[in-house]
Amino acid sequence: MKTFITATAALMLTAGLASAATITNKDGAAVMIVVTEGGQQTEVGVGPGQSVTVCGGGCFVTMPNGDRETLSGGEAVEISGGKASIK
User: Fold this and answer.
1) With left for phi above 0 and alpha for psi between -120 and 50, is residue 56 left, alpha or beta?
2) In which domain, by residue range, is 20 found?
């Protein structure tokens, strides 16, 4: 029973991460993005060359240049030259 519970928890964690969006900063300077998920806004810093995972269940993201994007999860977003592109 304990093994079943552990396996189920691991599967749920993996499934949640699989549907999250990844934001990668390809610029040489850190950037701040604003993530709005479930009505709550959170500022997220992304250092140069760093990747962060956001939006487990869909969200709005305000990019460094002010553009807003809707993410449903699973997207790969790259920030380069201060602009974001969704892959």
Assistant:
1) alpha
2) 2-86
Q: Tell me the whole-structure pTM to 2 decimals.
A: 0.75
Rounded to the nearest 10 degrees, how much is the dihedral formed by the CA atoms of 68, 72, 74, 80? 0
Q: Say how far apart CA 4 and CA 82 lie, in whole Å.
A: 46
Residue 24's CATH number: 2.60.40
Length of the chain, in residues: 87
Given a cut of 50, the residues of the chain with pLDDT beneath it are 1-17
Give the number of domains in the chain. Answer: 1
Give per-residue pLDDT as tens, 11-31. Answer: 444 444 458 999 999 999 999
Q: The tokens of 13 are what?
A: 């964690």
Cα separation, 29 vs 8, in Å, equals 40
Distance CA 15, CA 13 (A): 5
Q: How far apart are CA 81 and CA 28, in angstroms?
A: 9
